[in-house]
Amino acid sequence: MKGLALLFTLLISLTCQADTSTPLSSWQDGASRQAIISFVQRVTDPASPEHVAPSDRIAVFDNDGTLWAEQPIYTQLLFVGDRVRAQAGENPAWESQEPFASVLKGDLAGAFSSSHDAPVQLIRASQAGLDTDSFDQVVRDWMQTARHPTTDKPFTRMVYQPMLELLDYLQDNDFKSFIVSGGGVDFMRPWTESVYGIPPERVVGSRTAKQLAVQDGVVRVVHEGTMEFNDDKEGKPIGISQHIGRRPIAAFGNSDGDLQMLQWTTAGDGARFALIVHHTDAEREWAYDRDSSIGRLDQALDAAAEHGWTVVNMKQDWKQVFPD
């Protein structure tokens, strides 16, 4: 009996080890998972006619709604709101001045839609005058303490476990992954390496202008706060071209803001892969697509059907959504 018990224990141990080594283990073994694995195998097999050299294995990922949750409001907007409130005591005029007045009343959506240049005004207020090192620290401090307004979890726990596994799987197969987001590049770079394993130099995003200045006898790069480049929609292929210098062979998004990135990626020669995360799980996350004011998925969903892109049904394709 003791021998059988030891054998049974050994079999369980080996089974558990096999499970942990299975790629994309939080994905259901369906069409989406198989499409990813099939593509990776084709481009990494030296004997395959679709083999791609490691130097050209570039993958690009949107962030909001693709790698982490974007509902009920973009994370960076919450950060900007907190920054405005923290500085309100030094700016008493904001009590009656839009878009700041709406922020101070707790109406972030109203603040950002109050005028055409409201986002620029709020972003400028959140970082203008800070040098890059100081702003990095402000972001890190905020990420350590801020909580998601619906789940009360740290934002670093609002990432998608299946997508973390996908990043690891691609890295294990000599892909180089980049984040390409409409979010601010200076907001993302302080934490993407610790959360996703993607270093700052592989983050492409919207940029604000900066200038060189001498402060207290030290040369610094200082934020001006004015918008320099909007890395959304048609801006994404442009940002990739300027920052990466290679057309990706794989692109991952979730909304119409990613459409041009997916189109440009799949327009290249050779093996190409495009994937859309479709938010269909109202119980474990959120369900939204064509009519959503955040992360609207309309034109890109139609394009996916037309071009045969992989569409991930979150409710059906993912065993779990967030890390345990």
Automatic annotation (TrEMBL):
Pfam families membership: HAD (PF12710)
SUPFAM superfamilies tied to this protein: HAD-like
Matches recorded under InterPro entries: HAD-like_sf, HAD_sf
Keywords noted in UniProt: Signal
Record keyword RNA-binding present: no
Top-level taxon: Bacteria
Keyword Amino-acid biosynthesis: no
Span of the signal peptide: 1-18
Name of the protein in question: Haloacid dehalogenase
Organism of origin: Pseudomonas abyssi
